[in-house]
Amino acid sequence: MSKPVLSLKGLHREYDVGDGRKLTVLKGVDLAVMPGELVGLIGPSGSGKSSLLHAVGLLEAIAEEPKKGRRATSQAVVDELLIDGGDFAKANDAARTQARLHKIGFVYQFHHLLPEYTALGNVALPQRLIGRPQKDADARATELLTALGLAERLEHLPAQLSGGEQQRVAVARALANRPCLLLADEPTGNLDPATSQQVFEALKAIIKAQGVGALIATHNLQLATHMDRVVRLEDGKLVEIKPETA
Ligand SMILES: Nc1ncnc2c1ncn2[C@@H]1O[C@H](COP(=O)(O)OP(=O)(O)OP(=O)(O)O)[C@@H](O)[C@H]1O
């Protein structure tokens, strides 16, 4: 049996909110994501979905749970954080940066494409950052953009693309370096329902084809019903629910 691309145990996160007060958002989150699996992350506004993605995406330093004594505060704390089998529970900045470049792809609500680069250029760029030759980077970008239905849009600038097309370029960019894990925060939140469904279907197809595990935060319960699994944040913990009842 294949190994999880993400194995998370005991994630806690609290924030300092002034006057010595703390807001505890995540209270022991456990989650495993398998290769090719699409997991929907739902929960009310403020329940901690972005905080969870932030920690799993190694966008902040993480501390391993001290076995004894007081827990470190105002920092994500975990018992275990394995990505592609590698231990990132206490990874330093350099290790987290490398993992973000090689192992994790991100898609946000807004595409954040570079306006002066074409669709092809935007998808080639992260590959150039890890030293892939231009020819190979362009070939991979063309392959991904074609798979996402954008073969006729390779040379378009972001401003010349529709919202759904821009978001599909963002998906291609996130997958450019062959990550094992895709993290998405409201990837279709800025799109109308029909376009949202199209972008989601394109994302799902490519996740399955490339065997990438995906964790997708969404308020769109209709989309959640099309995921393999759905987990809901409730009072700082994850509860597994049936996709059809999301
Ligand atoms: N840097 C911070 N400092 C203090 N509080 C924070 C910080 N970041 C987030 N919070 C608080 O933590 C809680 C969870 O925020 P988070 O953005 O993770 O929720 P969310 O589920 O993603 O919300 P939404 O669906 O509205 O995007 C919120 O109450 C938020 O105000």
Automatic annotation (TrEMBL):
PROSITE patterns reported for this sequence: ABC_TRANSPORTER_1, ABC_TRANSPORTER_2
Residues annotated as domain ABC transporter: 6-245
Record's keyword terms, sorted: ATP-binding, Lipoprotein, Nucleotide-binding, Transport
Xref: CDD domains: ABC_MJ0796_LolCDE_FtsE
GO terms of biological process kind: lipoprotein localization to outer membrane; protein localization to outer membrane
Domain of life from the UniProt record: Bacteria
A GO CC term assigned to this protein in UniProt: plasma membrane
Pfam family name, one: ABC_tran
Gene Ontology terms for molecular function: ATP binding; ATP hydrolysis activity; transmembrane transporter activity
InterPro entries linked: AAA+_ATPase, ABC_transporter-like_ATP-bd, ABC_transporter-like_CS, ABC_transpr_LolD-like, MacB-like_ATP-bd, P-loop_NTPase
UniProt family annotation: Belongs to the ABC transporter superfamily.
PANTHER family: IMPORT ATP-BINDING PROTEIN, LIPOPROTEIN-RELEASING SYSTEM ATP-BINDING PROTEIN LOLD
Protein name: Lipoprotein-releasing system ATP-binding protein lolD
Organism phylogeny: Bacteria, Pseudomonadati, Pseudomonadota, Alphaproteobacteria, Caulobacterales
